Amino acid sequence: MTTAPAPLAAAPDQRLLAAFLALLAGAIAMGVSPVFVRFADVGPFASAFWRAALALPLLAVWARIERPAGTAAPRWNTATLAAGVLFAGDLFFWHLAIMNTTAANATLLATLAPLWVMLASGALLKEPVTRAMALGLAACLFGAALLVGSSFAFAPERLLGDLYGLATSVFFGSYFIAMRFARRGATGMTPGLLVYRSSLVTAAVLFVVALLLEETILPASLMGIAMLVALGVFSHALGQGLLAFALGTLSAGFSALVIFLEAVAAAAMGYLFLAESIGLAQALGGAVILAGIYIARPRAPVAAPAAPATPDPFRTPQ
Question: What rounded mean pLDDT belongs to the chain?
Answer without folding.
Answer: 81
